[in-house]
Design a protein that fits this description.
The relative contact order is 0.19. Helices cover about 45% and strands about 15% of the residues. By secondary structure, it is α/β, with parallel strands linked by helices.
Length: about 325
Amino acid sequence: MSSFRRSIAVAALCVLQSTAWAQSWPSKPVKVIVPFTPGSATDIMARTVSDKLSNQIGQPVVVENRPGAGGTIGEAVVAKSDPDGYTVLVHSSSYTVTPSTYRNLSFDTLRDLTGITPLGLLPNVLVIAPSKGIRSVKELVAAARAKPGAMNAATIGVGSATHLNAERFRLGAGIDVVSVPFKGTPEALTEVMTGRVDYYFCPVNAALPFLKDGKLLGLAVGSTRRSVALPDLKTTLEEGIPNSDYNFWVGMFAPSKTPREAIARLYGETVKALHAPEVREKLARLGAEPMEYDPERFNAYIRNEIAANAVLVKAAGIKAQ
């Protein structure tokens, strides 16, 4: 058989396989890997969308938490899984930081994984215990400048979205603050509420209940624009801290060799779920805001953010793990 005929045969086989996949999927449960602890912002959003997806496709969509190492443990699981549309990753924007903060990974973020779509934008809110007696960003910055290195900020590990938001704020404000990593948001919030840790750029959904009952005080929102859930709270940019904004998003990914038809089907079903009134309502209660990108636009956004975060990591002096 000539090379031309072989190419035609291979192409025809790929088309047949893709068509067969599209007709048979889903024939078994779909696994959603979340690389953070249960109850985290990423986990809650993943479960909200997965419940609706399960109803739509007629198969269980099972969330499995694989926390640790800044999300790279869960990333590796998906990067090395079969590219068949049955294993996906739901990760936060820290996905675009790990290439700069972790050495010797067993996978390559751009080579081995591909974006499907964002699930939403979830602003961080700068929270502090009322017992600290600090009532504004201006007072916080003044306190930090008065005692360089004495204040600390909670994060969810090196390179996490909470860490990057805190670092952008630190650099923009020109303050010396110690980063204190925790396994998850619940642990970080406990330490902030007790006053053992000074402040935390917390995902808005996790902070809302404590803000409402007065256990925490919100000083500002860490994203580029104000949060729909906290419309009266200014951004750190509006509070006069330059280049302090960081956009915390949550998105869905798959192994890069997943067939285009699989990516298209996963994208279509996920967007359908995101547009369902009950899902929109639940995400809105979490403080999540729409971020509607198709796979092509999402992957372009990811590439740009990886490059931008590499610059930030260097400027902040964050050492690779």
